Amino acid sequence: MTKKAFRILGLFLTFILIFQSISFSQENDLCYVLHDLGEYKIVTRRYRVAPPHDYGTGPVYSYTDYGVIDKDGNVIVEQKYQEILPPSEGRAAFTTNENNIGFFDENWNIVIEPKYKNNRYPSQLYFSEGLVQVGKSHPEKYIVWGYIDRDGNEVIDFIYDSASPFKNGIAEVGINEPVYNYNTMTKSGKIDKNGNIVEPFKFGYATGKPYDSWWNYPIEVLLSENLVELNGRRYKNSDIEYPFINYLGYSYIPLTYYGCRMMGINCDWTEETGVVLSSGGEISEDIVGNNGMTERVYEKADIYKGKLTINGTTYEYGDTAYPLIHYKNVVYMPVLWQTGMEALGIEYSFIGAEKIENSDRGCMVFKTN
Questions:
Q1: Domains of the chain (ranges plus CATH)?
Q2: DSSP label at 13?
Q3: Contact between 284 and 259 (Cβ < 8 Å)
């Protein structure tokens, strides 16, 4: 290509870029109708932040400065809010620039002052069956959730870590529980409009899936490749008769008689209470033996649906932060289940491979108080 052709091509590309820039900057609608409600319209400032994508979707827009006009274009609510949602049951949620939530009535007067915190899912912020879930600031949990009525009365306590709208008199709410290596995991339960629990709180293990149906199929586990240290004695996991296993990247403790005794834990079993564990047992060392597992080879196992009793407290399916596993007639407990670990007085830590002499693998360390 000649120099003249290069110059022509450069001028052409420059023209295209300038044209797109002018077109892009001019697409800034100061009073865009986002929701047409008939008598009223929710308007916003809309501007384009990205051109259409090559894979068929339209341009990307951003919306700010929400307000309300009537069908004749008269300003009813000044365009100064971060967001205004369409009304439900005569109440329309709005969000201030400080991320506080309030509600308008049918005439677009503020009926509930913006003193609640912004929902992470604004599309769910609507009144349903006379109630709506809103949040309050909390010094430790960031936000806790409760329910208010159409007049702003707080009718269900602000004690939940997540909440959803009511449907047929029932709402799903969540409570966070601490686990090792992560801040929290959420147990979900259901309450009625009086705040009574109608379905106990359980861990679902799979987002959006019922825990009584999703986990009825066999699972696959691996022999953990880490070393294991139990109260000062270190083992190669492949040399332990009932080894520590790995499921979805998480380690599991075998709840065998001798395996538990090695950590100073008593282990028993009854038909009524399932596996029974208690702290304060005599330490044993007889856990070495052939386990028949090969590293990096998956083995079939099942989710344990029985009971587990620790120091007199019985846990059932869905009560643990990670599912209990049944493998080779042995029940396995997840290391990351902080409640169970603390109840048994087990302290867990991990040593990286780089800190262990002559080893290419890390070590799981367990100590009992």
A1: 27-81 (no CATH), 88-202 (2.40.128), 219-368 (no CATH)
A2: H
A3: no
CA-to-CA distance for 117 and 104, rounded, in angstroms? 16
Q: Which pLDDT tens digit goes with each residue over 126-157?
A: 999 999 999 999 888 889 999 999 999 999 99
Question: What is this structure's pTM?
Answer: 0.77
Question: Number of C-alpha atoms within 13 angstroms, CB side, residue 258?
Answer: 10
CA distance 330 to 341: 18
Mean pLDDT by 10 residues, the chain (369 residues): 54 48 58 95 90 67 93 96 95 92 97 87 84 92 93 97 94 89 83 96 64 68 92 88 90 88 86 88 72 87 92 90 90 92 92 91 91
Q: Are 369 and 347 in contact (CB under 8 A)?
A: yes
What is the C-alpha to C-alpha distance for residues 113 and 107, in angstroms, rounded to an integer?
15
The two tokens of residue 108 are: 């677009």
In whole angstroms, give the CA distance from residue 161 to residue 147: 12
Reduced to 3 DSSP states, what percent helix, strand and coil does the chain have, rounded to the nearest 5?
A: 10, 50, 40
- pLDDT, tens digit, 9 for 90 and up, residues 185-212: 888 999 999 999 999 998 876 544 445 5
| Residue 351: half-sphere exposure toward Cβ, Cα within 13 Å | 16
Distance of CA 268 to the CA centre of its chain: 34
Per-residue tokens: 329: 């007639």
Burial of 125 by CB count in 10 Å (0-12 exposed, 13-18 middle, 19+ buried)?
buried
Pairing of strands 299-303, 325-327: antiparallel
